Amino acid sequence: MTRHARNCTAGAVYTYHEKRKDAASSGYGTNTQRVGKDSVKNFDCCSLTLQPCRNPVITKDGYLFDKEAILEYYLTKKKEYVRKLKEYEKQKQQEEEQSHEKTANEELQKLQNFLKAEKNIVSRSKNKADELASSVSNMCNGKDKMLPSFWIPSKTPEAKDIILHKPDKTIYCPISGRPLRIKDLIPVKFTEVKDPDDKKSLIVKEARYMCPITHDILSNSVPCAVIRTTGDVVTMECVEKIIKRDWINPLDGIKLSTADIILLQRGGTGYAAVNEQLEGKHERPVLQA
Q1: How does pLDDT run across 246-287, given as a tens digit for each residue?
Q2: Per-residue pLDDT tens digits for 160-217
Q3: Angle at 162 between CA 158 and CA 167, to 5 degrees
Q4: Which structural domains are found in the chain, ordered by start?
C-alpha cells in the first residue's frame, strides 16, 4: 500500500482525515466539538443568564439561579399557560357549537324529507325550505363555514385540524425538569474573600468566595454544598469532616439533618468526572447513498 499525503486524492485509501474533511465541507452528518472552558458555567453564576448572581437562590436539586431571572421565567410560564388555556377553551367551545349546528342541520334535513314525502299536491310555487334543499350553492346548509381559503395555510383543503390538549398547570425547572415552586427556592449567601491588598472588583477576581468555616477558596474544582437553614455555601470537605461529626452548624449551633445539606451543582472543569456532556453535537441531514 502506497503512502500519500493528507490532501491526496489519487490514492486508493480513503483516510479518516479525508472523510472528516469531506463531511465538514458537504454539510451532511453530525458535527461534534469538545466544549471549551469558555462554555463552562462558573459555580456562582445563574443557570439561566450564565452571569454572576446578584440575589442567588437555589432549588432543592442544587441548581443556582438569580432571583430576578427565575421569577421572570416563572411569570413567563404562567402567562404562557393562561394563553394556552384560553386557546384550548376556545377550541372546545367551537367543537360544541359545531356539534349543535350539525345536530340542527340533521333535524332540519329530516323535517324537509318528511314534508317532501308527505306532500301530495304538486305546486309550482316552491317554498324557501325547498329552495334551500334543492339549491346547488356552496353557501347553503352551513357550507359557508366550510369553504377553503387557499391564501391561508391552515384553511387549505389539505390542511389538517390541530387538536389542542389541555395545558399542564405545573411549571418545571428549566435545568432539572422537575416541578418548580417559588416557596421552595432557598436564598444563598456567599462569603467574600477579604483581602485588603487586592483592589480589584469582585467580578474580576478569580478567588471571589470562600468557605465561612474552613476559609477554603471556592471554585468549580471544589465540590460545594449549601446549608439550607442559613444559606451559607461550604465545601463538601467541611461537610464530611466537621458538620457530619455532630450534625451541628458551626456558624449558629443549630442542629442539622441530611436534608439540610444541598449539593451545589457546578458548571464543570473540563474533565469527564465533573461534566456529564463534554461534547457539543450539531445534527445535520444524513447523506443518502
Answers
A1: 999 998 889 999 999 999 987 765 555 555 566 777 777 775
A2: 777 888 899 999 999 888 999 999 999 999 999 887 777 777 777 778 899 999 999 9
A3: 170
A4: 41-110+151-187 (3.30.40), 189-268 (3.30.40.10)
Which three cell numbers, joined as nine digits, stand for 130? 325547498
Please state whether 191 falls in left (phi above 0), alpha (psi between -120 and 50) or beta.
Answer: beta
Q: What is the DSSP string of 199-251?
A: -S-TTT-SS-EE-TTT-PBP-TTS-EEEETTT-BEEEHHHIIIIIHHHTB-TT
What nine digits make up the cell of 220?
468549580
Residues 89-115 as b or e (16 or more Cβ within 10 Å = b): eeeeeeeeeeeeeeeeeeeeeeeeeee
Q: Residue written as cell 503512502?
A: 3
- CA 15 to chain CA centroid, Å, is 40
Q: Answer whether residue 28 shows pLDDT above 70.
A: yes
Please say whether the beta carbons of 261 and 243 come within 8 A. yes
More reliable by pLDDT, 234 or 3: 234
User: Are 33 and 43 a contacting pair, CB within 8 Å?
Assistant: no
Distance separating alpha carbons of residues 250 and 31, to the nearest angstrom? 50
Cα(240)–Cα(265) distance, rounded to whole angstroms? Answer: 17
